[in-house]
């Protein structure tokens, strides 16, 4: 029953996509009891859609309906195109499926499949629309039995844990207010953008230094370890984030190498590991001082939230102001009590009048402060708005200037090309064989072989020649030949 329902939903999606592409309202599709597809009659006649629209709708439905999946099989018809893309088929005893792995993914593969290899591919089910063929868009490839990587992970984890590399007493606390934050990852990694966005949002006042290193491929772990060592030597940051986005175990394998784990453990700077998703665990996570579930989580762990800091600062300032005010009030009250015992009534009245004036001034100041602050904020916002307001006249003038420069450049290029064509035409006219013949020269060819006659010694009486002149061709026979030395004309 579940299969029947899934098929019905898929057919409904295809039908609605096709009719949406054709610009008409979709009919109601239904499944009969014998699982055959029927449709209601469309008002105004039948619907006709192009094959490309149908293939596009089917491909869109496939990509939305099928998630990334691991597929196992045997490689056949493997081809590496000049563009770097891989094309092959994966098959078993009952079926086969065409596969494509584009260069951006293929360059990170740990091995190149060959005919007959048994592999597993992580792929998305798609359709190649020009031929209407179902295919797998491969994102990762591994040899069958990748459980060996997990076994190697467990062995290395047990070895380093026995050495005390993961001991809790080795872990260091993260600085609550770092002066600078370092990031070790690839410049092309999506995780870098997430981390920088989070740091910019939470703590824009803290400088960030990015130490680029590959996070996938051959030798990536050694380069990551070298960069961690460089951070320790430079001492430019107070805390270091080692991160990358999620992926399969082979994608994250650079963070499961011993060399990187030891570099993190020996780092002079506290290290936060943010590798993969929350469910992904690597050796680097255990060696780091703190393990974050994601790269974004790592950024949140190392950065104090600026809004909270400002809020706490305002709270402390208000507390200090209240405490100072209460102390001043107590001192003033004590002074008044002592003054009442020492001063005359007239002086007491004068002091109370002064105190009343002070209170009045404070009240006026307290009432004017919100207005003053609001005016200051308004002025600041007005200045920021004026600074970011686009200067349309300047942009239009610059656009007009660029247009004139472009027209002038095109005109100069056209003139140069025309002059060059004229020069080449004149040179071609000078070198034309016809012009040579018009100056009185003739081309003498052997009538049998068609080759040019160059030496007088090859001329014999009775030999037939073909002579090409400026105004035509003539066949001649030699009656007599008198050779002369080549002394000019």
Automatic annotation (TrEMBL):
<comment type="subunit">
    <text>Heterooligomer composed of large and small subunits.</text>
</comment>
<comment type="function">
    <text>Bidirectionally degrades single-stranded DNA into large acid-insoluble oligonucleotides, which are then degraded further into small acid-soluble oligonucleotides.</text>
</comment>
<dbReference type="InterPro" id="IPR025824">
    <property type="entry name" value="OB-fold_nuc-bd_dom"/>
</dbReference>
<dbReference type="GO" id="GO:0005737">
    <property type="term" value="C:cytoplasm"/>
</dbReference>
<keyword id="KW-0378">Hydrolase</keyword>
<feature type="domain" description="Exonuclease VII large subunit C-terminal">
    <location>
        <begin position="165"/>
        <end position="476"/>
    </location>
</feature>
<keyword id="KW-0540">Nuclease</keyword>
<keyword id="KW-0963">Cytoplasm</keyword>
<dbReference type="GO" id="GO:0009318">
    <property type="term" value="C:exodeoxyribonuclease VII complex"/>
</dbReference>
<feature type="region of interest" description="Disordered">
    <location>
        <begin position="23"/>
        <end position="42"/>
    </location>
</feature>
<dbReference type="GO" id="GO:0008855">
    <property type="term" value="F:exodeoxyribonuclease VII activity"/>
</dbReference>
<dbReference type="InterPro" id="IPR020579">
    <property type="entry name" value="Exonuc_VII_lsu_C"/>
</dbReference>
<dbReference type="Pfam" id="PF02601">
    <property type="entry name" value="Exonuc_VII_L"/>
</dbReference>
<keyword id="KW-0269">Exonuclease</keyword>
<dbReference type="InterPro" id="IPR003753">
    <property type="entry name" value="Exonuc_VII_L"/>
</dbReference>
<dbReference type="GO" id="GO:0003676">
    <property type="term" value="F:nucleic acid binding"/>
</dbReference>
<protein>
    <recommendedName>
        <fullName>Exodeoxyribonuclease 7 large subunit</fullName>
        <ecNumber>3.1.11.6</ecNumber>
    </recommendedName>
</protein>
<feature type="domain" description="OB-fold nucleic acid binding">
    <location>
        <begin position="50"/>
        <end position="141"/>
    </location>
</feature>
<comment type="similarity">
    <text>Belongs to the XseA family.</text>
</comment>
<dbReference type="GO" id="GO:0006308">
    <property type="term" value="P:DNA catabolic process"/>
</dbReference>
<dbReference type="Pfam" id="PF13742">
    <property type="entry name" value="tRNA_anti_2"/>
</dbReference>
């Amino acid at each position: 029953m579940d299969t029947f329902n899934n098929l019905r939903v898929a057919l409904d999606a295809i039908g609605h996509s096709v009719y949406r592409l054709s610009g008409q309202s979709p009919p109601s599709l239904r499944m009969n009891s014998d699982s055959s597809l029927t449709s209601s009659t469309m008002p105004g006649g039948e619907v006709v859609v192009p094959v490309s629209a149908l293939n596009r709708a089917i491909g869109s439905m496939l990509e939305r309906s099928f998630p990334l999946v691991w597929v196992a099989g045997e490689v056949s018809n493997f081809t590496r195109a000049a563009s770097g893309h891989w094309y092959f088929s994966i098959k078993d005893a009952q079926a086969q499926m065409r596969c494509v792995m584009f260069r951006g993914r293929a360059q990170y593969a740990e091995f190149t499949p060959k005919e007959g290899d048994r592999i597993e591919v992580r792929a998305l089910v798609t359709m190649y629309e020009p031929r209407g063929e179902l295919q797998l868009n491969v994102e990762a490839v591994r040899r069958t039995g990748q459980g060996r990587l997990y076994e190697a992970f467990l062995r290395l984890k047990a070895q380093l844990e026995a050495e005390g590399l993961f001991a809790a007493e080795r872990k260091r606390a993260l600085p609550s207010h770092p002066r600078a934050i370092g990031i070790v990852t690839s410049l092309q990694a999506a995780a870098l953008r997430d981390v920088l966005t989070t740091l910019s949002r939470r703590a824009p006042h803290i400088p960030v230094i990015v130490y680029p290193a590959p996070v996938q491929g051959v030798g990536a772990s050694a380069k990551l370890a070298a960069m961690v060592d460089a951070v320790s030597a430079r001492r430019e940051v107070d805390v270091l984030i080692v991160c990358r986005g999620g992926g399969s175990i082979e994608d994250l394998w650079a963070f499961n190498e011993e060399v990187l784990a030891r570099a993190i453990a020996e780092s002079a700077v506290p290290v936060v590991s943010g590798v993969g998703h929350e469910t992904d665990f690597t050796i680097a996570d255990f060696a780091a001082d703190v393990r974050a579930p994601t790269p974004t989580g790592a950024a949140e762990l190392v950065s104090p939230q600026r809004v909270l800091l400002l809020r706490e600062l305002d709270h402390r300032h208000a507390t200090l102001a209240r405490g100072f005010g209460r102390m001043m009030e107590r001192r003033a009250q004590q002074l008044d009590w002592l003054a009442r015992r020492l001063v005359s009534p007239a002086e007491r009245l004068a002091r109370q009048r002064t105190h009343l004036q002070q209170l009045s001034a404070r009240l006026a100041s307290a009432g004017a402060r919100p207005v003053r602050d609001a005016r200051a904020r308004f002025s600041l916002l007005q200045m920021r708005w004026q600074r970011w307001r686009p200067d349309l006249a300047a942009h239009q003038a610059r656009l007009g200037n660029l247009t004139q420069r472009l027209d002038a450049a095109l005109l100069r290029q056209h003139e140069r090309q025309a002059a060059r064509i004229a020069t080449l035409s004149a040179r071609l006219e000078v070198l034309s064989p016809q012009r040579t013949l018009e100056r009185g020269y003739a081309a003498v060819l052997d009538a049998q072989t068609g080759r040019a006659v160059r030496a007088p010694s090859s001329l014999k009486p009775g030999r037939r020649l073909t002579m090409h002149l400026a105004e035509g061709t003539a066949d001649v026979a030699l009656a007599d030949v008198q050779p002369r030395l080549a002394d000019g004309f």
